[in-house]
Amino acid sequence: MDGTRVSGRAVGRAVGRVAGYAAMAVVCAFILLPFVWMVLSSLKPNNEVFMVPVRWLPSTWHWEHYAQIWTKADMGTWLLNTVFFAVVVMLLQVATGSFAAYGFSKIAFPGRNTLFLVYVATMAVPWQAYMIPQFKMLSVIGLNDTRWSIILLQAFGAFGVFMMKQFYDTIPDELAEAARLDGMSEFGIWARIIVPLSGPSIAALAIITFTNTWNDYMGPLLYLRSPDLYTIQLGLKTFISQYDADYAMIMTGSVLSVLPILVVFLLGQKQFIEGIATSGMKG
Amino acid sequence: MGAQDLAGRGGGARDNSAHVRTLRNRNIRNGLLFIAPNFIGFLVLILIPVVTLFYTSFTKWSALGEPSFNGLANWRRLFADENFKTATLNTLYYAAVHIPLTLALAFGLAVLLNAKIRGRAFFRTVAFFPYITAIVAVAQVWSMMFDPKSGLINQFLGLFVDDLPGWLSSTSWAMPAVIIVGTWREVGYFMILLLAGLQTIPAELYEAAQVDGANGWQRFWHVTVPCMWPTLFFVTVTLTITSLKILDLTLVMTNGGPGISTLVLAQYVYRVAFERADFGYASTVSLMLFFICLAVTMLQFWINNRRERA
Lengths: 283, 310
Known about the structure:
The complex is a heterodimer of chains A (283) and B (310). Chain A is mostly helical. Chain A has two domains: 2-41; 67-278, MetI-like fold, CATH 1.10.3720.10. Chain A contains 13 helices and no strands. Chain A has helices at 8-42, 65-72, 75-106, 112-123, 127-140, 147-155, 158-168, 173-181, 186-197, 199-215, 218-223, 232-242, 247-281. In chain A, helix 7 runs antiparallel to helix 10. The longest helix of chain A has 35 residues, at 8-42. Chain B is mainly α and 310 residues long. In chain B, 74% of the residues lie in helices and 1% in strands. Chain B has a two-stranded antiparallel sheet. In chain B, a hairpin with a 7-residue loop joins strand 1 and strand 2 (68-69). In chain B, helix 4 crosses helix 12 (265-275) and helix 5 (120-132) packs across helix 8. The longest helix of chain B has 40 residues, at 17-56. At the A-B interface, helix 1, helix 3, helix 4, helix 5 and helix 6 of A face helix 1, helix 2, helix 4, helix 5 and helix 6 of B.
């Protein structure tokens, strides 16, 4: 095509392209706006958060909010508790999930399809529907308001088993068969052949579990009463109701509650997104 | 070693039925051993509560003590309960707007991102931010932005219209506000699922359509949509369940208010159980929530099957 005569189709394509970029820019702005507003508000003097007309940039930047919040609220305890829960749940979910997935994917035993179907079927039952019997049961055995409640609540989800099985099914059975012929135990095959091959999907499951546990609000709300067990979500919520007019400080706490998970996501987003895409897809 | 070898080849030899049996037994033992750590937790914490629910919905069960059977009393109460009716209607309202809105936006964005455009990776990352952000911070920021007088949103709308919505302080505008936040939050997640589906469509199909003279719009309706049907179906089912069980968003953002204008089913369960300690009746409401999810999913499967046969 020479530069002087541009065909109608090319013009159409260029218009489409510009429209596409414009749509993307608008959506991007819509998605990011609350984040931008949250960060900017956390750095404003309190009376500038709700100004009419809106004042985007603070007149003076109050970085000290990020130092003060540690004494105003029990942020340190909340963050530490949350990290503890997220790490323990992540380890348990990855270990038991990949273990069970190996059983479902690589060992042919009668009834395994039925058993797996039970797993998949309960994935469709919303937690909201069985949270009551679960709560009463854990309360009866005295685990209400203990660290155990949150760990048990999150660690044995069917999702991890399902996701790992999807991945193990793509590893050829011949690999496990050959190792069996060489006399390797099932545990050995799992530990030395399958796990080393499944790095990306283990990373995906680990990141997804970590994020879910970090962000969980309902679990801690139902089970945790003692302030020294509070997670960041529960803590932030109580902080908001205590300092309900201290808008800048509330935004500071919100930023701090979101930031760690944003960093985790940015570091592992490839695994995260692929994990979601593949385990979501084959359902 | 020999036994496994023979069994692995289908066991045609004379004397290997015993070997097959040992292998089978060993497989049962090993299989169950591997599954056990997860399964025991799963059984105790998920399966048993789910099954128990069917019984406790027929009981009177307060904060202390055991559930005691009370026949159909809970169910009679349920069908006369105005709050339950409102909560069901609110849930359906949320679902009826949230599902098509999220699906359309997510699909549109996925198609856009599937084209080779610059900034695609950046956009994919950004679109996922709301989904991984915890609900408490999300609800707080949006509540402040929805402030009727000095919030960002009404200040912007004030440039165009005079009659501004009261958002979270108005019984008719609170639900739209919740829906906006719900959509903002979930669109990126469903976009990723749809994008993964789009990437499995073979490029040859588009090339063939182009050779036949189909324009972009025709290619979308006659290639993209039919190929995406299984993915769209799966996403719709997931999205429906997510919408019907909505809880933490309304709990933190509106606490069901103003009045009970955003009280949804799952939050009604929470209220009855944890604010009134009426666990028996709360089980009945939970079971209804479960049945509604089940019925909608089955309906969707039925429609999908009919469509595939047609």
